Amino acid sequence: MSSHRSHRRPPRPGTGWPARVTVLTAAASAVAALTSSMAAAEPDEGKATSSGTAGARVDRLYEQAERATDKYNGAAERVTTLRKRVEQLQDEAARGQAKVNRLRNALGSLAGAQYRSGAVDPTVALILSSDPDGYLDRAATLDRVGDRQRGQLREFESARRALEQRRTEAAGTLERLGTQRAELLRHKKSVQAKLRSARRLLDRLTPDERAERDRASRGVPRDAAPGGAEASSGRASSALAAAQRAVGSPYGWGQAGPSSFDCSGLTQWAYGQAGTSIPRTSQAQRSAGSHVPLSQARPGDLVIYRADASHVAMYAGNGQVVHAPQPGAQVRYDPVGMMPVSAVVRP
Q: Of 7, 187, 291, 311, which one is the catalytic site residue?
């Protein structure tokens, strides 16, 4: 992720629109660079490692990193939405500016011709007026302004107002974009710091402890895919098939396929392969469908873990789920009761 910290400020009143377009373009480009690396501060390991075995402390750090990853994913989704809105406003503003320029030129040509003929038309005053809104209200009542001219004046003023609205909205969107960029960077720092701490603790494990964790991280073998129960729908069956194809792929925090995944990235990608859109984060996926009891879970259902919904897996049948567990592990099958279940969701 890029380490540059320049935040674009909303345009100041009176600045030209070309400068605003430049700011919009620069902001959009800056957001596109957010996927590169950056340095992060270290966590307070004293608090994170105060009790329990080294392996248990590693698990707690992974759990904390997963929560931070979910927040990162949410911020990344908001940044993407705002970036797209910036691009839309940029396009609309460019078209609006072209329309205003065209109408102004047409009015200027008409006013210039009338001025040369000796008649001072109200359009001249409109173009030169410091208060076009007030002047337009007065000019519309003048007998010398014909219906065609009045229509041109109204069209010009409507286009000008629309352009100002786009400028105002663009300024607000840029401000929100800067806020979300800062939040995205904070969450990335948190994830990276916790993962580094976990790695340091893993390096201190004894050979026996490391072997035990390696055995646990392998989960259920790839060729032992659960079966038996039927999915609740065709799309659920297709989503599960996609998730099963991902078994063996590496965990990658902040990733949603096709070659690496975090927990919610796997479920979102799998349902996307089935032609169904679900939210990016595990917290949002908790509200992505109807809730059913765990005893009625069917293949393709989403299994949400922990009270804060910081982990999600997909039910695969026969008491097993498929999920992206944690850094250093691969997408795998595990028992559905591997951690506290807070909800089962049927998209």
A: 311
- Tell me the CA distances in angstroms from 197 to 62, 327, 328, one per residue in order: 9, 12, 14
Q: Which of 4, 187, 263, 291 is catalytic?
A: 263
Q: Is 311 known to be catalytic?
A: yes
pLDDT digits (tens, 9 = 90+) for 308-347: 999 999 999 999 999 999 988 999 999 999 999 999 999 9
Q: Which of 4, 7, 187, 323 is the catalytic position?
A: 323
| Residue 187 is among the residues annotated as catalytic for this protein | no
SS3 for the chain is: CCCCCCCCCCCCCCCCHHHHHHHHHHHHHHHHCCCCCCCCCCCCHHHHCCCCCHHHHHHHHHHHHHHHHHHHHHHHHHHHHHHHHHHHHHHHHHHHHHHHHHHHHHHHHHHHHHHHCCCCCHHHHHHHCCCHHHHHHHHCCCCCCCHHHHHHHHHHHHHHHHHHHHHHHHHHHHHHHHHHHHHHHHHHHHHHHHHHHHHHHHHCCCHHHHHHHHHHHHCECCCCCCCCCCCCCHHHHHHHHHHHHCCCCEECCCCECCCCECHHHHHHHHHHHCCCCCCCCHHHHCCCCEECCHHHCCCCCEEEECCCCCEEEEEEECCEEEECCCCCCECEEEECCCCCEEEEEEC
Confidence grade of residue 152 (pLDDT, cut at 50, 70, 90): confident
Q: Is 323 a catalytic residue?
A: yes
Q: What tokens appear for 158 in the block?
A: 């409507």
pTM: 0.61
Q: Write the pLDDT tens digit of every residue in 185-197.
A: 888 898 888 888 8
